[in-house]
Design goal:
With about 300 residues, the chain is of the alpha+beta class. It is about 30% helix and about 25% strand. The chain has ten helices and 15 strands. The strands form two sheets. Strands 7, 8, 9, 10, 11, 12, 13, 14 and 15 form a nine-stranded mixed sheet that branches. The chain has a six-stranded antiparallel sheet with strand order 2-1-6-5-3-4.
């Protein structure tokens, strides 16, 4: 049976054999930067933007991965081509991981050496979006957690890195508050920043509002949503948002690479607006679907139907 292949420092290895040492900086320090891109009809969505952010993150972390951005893009395209016969008709994520490499202290124990390691893998989106299919219609519940975002003067969230235990703590806190609730973080001043791997939007009186870009990951999907709003002449501003403002919102949603955008119909145990999916969200999702040639919510429902029979 054919297996998916992973780009591993210039070689292509079976997915189950793609391993790094327990002495790698990624495990010892969380010292790794990464990107996740998705495809629509096998076409990468804003791949170059993701790679540009990856290289900004590498610069921030002072990691020289040994590839130019053009070489990384070419390696990505080759990884996709090699895996198309295996993934079939399914759309998939593209994951780029770059670690600094193993600590020199353990060099004699690490077969791959101590230089940075670049991996690129693809993985079908069946579970990612199939598991979220219902949320496109019923919405999601976001709660503000005690765990806050790390201020950018300590670790800059604009560099996408794996040092993210504060995300996990926030997720655990949200789950304790209500099963299925998702975490919404705030900064040290109480302003909303982002979710754990997603960006926040709300609308009030016809105006879309999203947090300023200083203490958040400036998501590529966030940028896509902003671009669509401007293309549709929907007023949009970036501003400091307090939890009070969300309670007064007409509608809200979140954006992320795999799911694109999902509505928020409850916030801190109260309905957002009238508690249903709002018209601005629906308009933006429809425009996004038209742009990529895929009915995003319908694809999620299709993949939900595959989950019981699909084997990763």
């Amino acid at each position: 049976m054919a297996e998916r292949l992973v780009y591993f420092n210039g070689d292509f290895v079976p997915e189950k054999e793609a391993r790094i040492s327990i002495f790698d900086c990624a495990l010892m320090y969380g010292d790794m930067v990464f990107e996740m891109t998705r495809v629509f009809n096998h076409q990468p969505f804003r791949l170059r933007e993701h790679l540009e952010r990856l290289y900004s993150s590498l610069k921030y972390a002072q990691i020289d991965c040994g590839l130019t951005i053009d070489e990384m893009e070419a390696a990505t395209c080759e990884t996709i081509e090699r895996n198309l016969p295996v993934v079939g008709d399914l759309d998939f994520q593209i994951m780029h991981d770059v670690t600094r490499g193993a600590l020199p202290l353990y060099d004699s124990l690490v077969t791959e050496g101590t230089a940075p390691i670049v991996t690129i893998n693809v993985f079908p989106l069946v579970r990612h979006i199939g598991g979220a299919a219902d949320a496109y219609d019923r919405g999601s519940h976001f709660v503000v957690t005690p765990q806050q975002s790390v201020p950018s003067r300590y670790i800059d969230p604009k560099a996408k890195n794996r040092s993210r235990i504060f995300y996990k703590i926030a997720e655990l806190q949200a789950a304790h508050m209500e099963e299925g609730a998702q975490a919404l973080l705030t900064d040290e001043h109480g302003f909303i920043t982002e979710g754990t791997g997603n960006n926040f939007f709300m609308a009030r009186d016809g105006v879309v509002i999203t947090p300023r870009g200083h203490n958040i990951l400036r998501g590529v999907s966030r940028g896509a949503c902003i671009d669509l709003a401007r293309k549709l002449d929907i007023p949009l501003i970036e501003a400091d948002i307090e939890p009070y403002d969300v309670r007064e919102a007409d509608e809200a949603w979140w954006t992320s690479t795999t799911i694109c955008m999902v509505p928020i119909t409850r916030f801190n145990f109260q309905p957002v607006g009238d508690g249903t999916v709002g018209p601005i969200y629906r308009r933006l999702l429809r425009a996004w679907s038209e742009e990529v040639g895929v009915d995003i919510a319908a694809q999620a429902r299709e993949y939900a139907g595959l989950m019981d029979s699909w084997t990763p």
